[in-house]
Design brief:
alpha/beta, TIM Barrel, eight-stranded parallel beta sheet, globular, binds phosphoenolpyruvate
Length: about 250
């Protein structure tokens, strides 16, 4: 099945109101590539303003598992939707590692996002010592088993494979290693969801930039990219979108 390429920028804890100009430039450039799905995930404070940018598709970087309640400082999935988001990232390694989120937590957040009508990007990925020990695929497939919900529209849930050691480091796995991991993920999804899994996109994330995007996005079973540092400006992000458009 042909899956549309999907390029998602994660701004993390970067961006003030002046940064909406960067989002404007990004979505103006994206308009020239209608065959690629593109979204930006800004900090919560910029969601509403960014959602108002012409052509913008925006998402949250996290959500709470509950729809509302006494959870000071947290943001619920229906609040993201209300602010103009159409997607949410869950299980980013900076949440799993920095905030102690388990596979069960990630699964609950994914379910909360889907229930609120959002699409979900669910992140998995191994730390460096696991890669070096040769058990990266087993590690990631266990994360998939524990954090991917059971019932959902496959078009609305994408997996992002992000080796932790490649995030923000400038290091990237070989294209063969990326293809092997994505193939293993696709096999696991097919084993669990059957033919419906064909519609699920699997993104690669970790130091994607304009120079390596064509090679990484061209690897087998890579349906797009989750991009951190290179998503903050149009000068860095649009070449990645263009690489995806060429591979279309
Ligand atoms: C990320 O944090 O999801 C990410 C991929 O970051 P970077 O592109 O900066 O490595």
């Amino acid at each position: 099945m042909a899956r549309r390429k999907y390029v998602v920028g994660n701004w993390k804890m970067n961006g003030l109101s002046a940064s909406i100009a960067d989002a404007r430039a990004i979505f103006a450039g994206v308009a020239g590539h209608p065959a690629v799905d593109v979204a930006l995930c800004p900090p919560f404070t910029l969601l509403g303003a960014m959602a108002a940018v012409p052509g913008a598709v925006v998402g949250g970087q996290d959500c709470h598992r509950a729809a509302l309640g006494a959870f000071t400082g947290s943001i619920a999935a229906p609040m993201l939707a209300d602010a103009g988001a159409s997607l949410v990232i869950v299980g980013h390694s900076e949440r799993r590692e920095g905030f102690g989120e388990s596979d069960g937590d990630v699964r609950a957040k994914a379910e909360a996002g889907l229930t609120a009508g959002l699409s979900v990007i669910l992140c998995v990925g191994e730390p460096r010592d696991v890669r070096e020990s040769g058990s990266a695929i087993d590690y990631v497939l266990a994360q998939i088993a524990g954090s991917v919900p059971d019932n959902f529209d496959p078009q609305r849930l994408a997996i992002a494979y992000e080796p932790i050691w490649a995030i923000g480091t400038g290091l990237v796995p070989t294209v063969d290693d990326v293809a092997a991991m994505h193939g293993a993920i696709r096999g696991a999804l097919a084993g669990r969801f059957g033919a419906a899994a064909d519609a699920m996109r699997i993104l690669y994330g970790g130091s994607v930039n304009g120079d390596n995007a064509a090679e990484l996005l061209g690897a087998a079973d890579v349906d797009g990219a989750l991009v951190g540092g290179a998503s903050l400006t149009s000068a860095k992000f649009l070449p990645i979108v263009e690489a995806a458009a060429v591979l279309g």
